[in-house]
Amino acid sequence: MHLMIVDDHPLFREALASAVRLAFPAAAVEEADGIEAACATLSRLRSVDLTLLDLTMRGVNGFDGLIAIRTRFPRIPILVVSGLDDPRIVREALSHGASGFVPKAAGKAVLTRAITDVLNGSIFVPEGVGAQEGEAPRGGKPPIAQRIAELTPQQVRVLLMIRQGKLNKQIAHELGVGDSTVKAHVSEILRKLGVISRTQIVIETANLDYDHILSESSTN
What burial letters (b/e) apply to 127-161, b meaning 16+ CB within 10 Å? Predict the structure, then answer.
């Protein structure tokens, strides 16, 4: 068994790695302190069976980290281990490709069962943390997770940079491509998301941000 822990808190990474090794003594455990480091490790080590991912890390907006890893490495299941356990956040995490969700407050037995279930191909959500259904999509559009899933990995990278407020020239510089290539990606993103402007992209992807989800929960 080969696992990777992605969390920007060294003490929690160490504690989680210890819990994993205690439950699975033969497991090999990698650690990454951010999304780019995680992607670099996954590109280098094709033997990783499961990624344990924290959602709230420095420089990561909402579910952007989950989406980035899931898009680039779709065959590697992701088990979210997070301090956020609001039912809507759990549901959104699963809709964006997570194979399971474990609150950081859960015990070792729950973590062990979650890892076992996900590696066996099941979706894991612990008792008491419901992944209840949300509202039907507005305007007849498919859910945002379904529309984002139609994007290519490079288009997802452009989308996440748009959400960070970066301009086309900045995106082109970071990706090492020409402005025309970025414009083509933006056009495809607009088409696949069913919107007509960059502002609408931000609005349509608002549910990727925890504060938006929690504010909607408090008003329902």
Answer: eebebeebeeeeeeeeebbebbbebeebbbbbbbb
What is the spatial distance between Cα 131 and Cα 152, in angstroms, rounded to a whole number?
27
- Other CB atoms within 10 Å distance of the CB of residue 203: 10
Q: Which residues contact 91 (CB under 8 A, 6 or more apart)?
A: 131, 132, 133, 134
Look at residues 40, 62, 65, 71 and name the one whose alpha carbon lies nearest to residue 52: 65
Q: What is the pLDDT of residues 19-71, one digit of tens each?
A: 999 999 999 999 999 999 999 999 999 899 999 999 988 888 889 999 999 99
Candidate from 23-37, 183-197, 206-220 with smallest mean pLDDT:
206-220
pTM assigned to the model: 0.76
Helix axes 210-219, 87-95, angle to 10 degrees: 130
Cβ 148 vs Cβ 159: under 8 Å: yes
